Amino acid sequence: VQLQASGGGLVQPGGSLRLSCEASGFAFSTYAASWVRQAPGKALEAVAAITSGGEKTNYADAVKGRFTISRDNAKNILYLDMSSLKPEDTAVYYCAARNTRGQGTLVTVSS
To answer: Which one-letter DSSP state was computed for residue 93?
Structure first.
């Protein structure tokens, strides 16, 4: 089971980023998936989740209305579109599925 996140980087407050997570080694389309993040010195925090077929999503209150989770089961990819980014969104972002958390990607929101 492998989950590889990418797309992180440095962005100014108010900016946007799209994170991607490529899944391999398992039947990705049959599992719910999620994004979690860990800010420096803080605990892991759930960000967004999506059902296996993509029909239902839910979000942490802190990102609701700004982040969108989606998936392409044909390509085995999970996405997180982030907009109106704030400095408090700075964290390492991880994708998760099948009780596995992959390597993260760092998002830094700073001017």
So the answer is: E
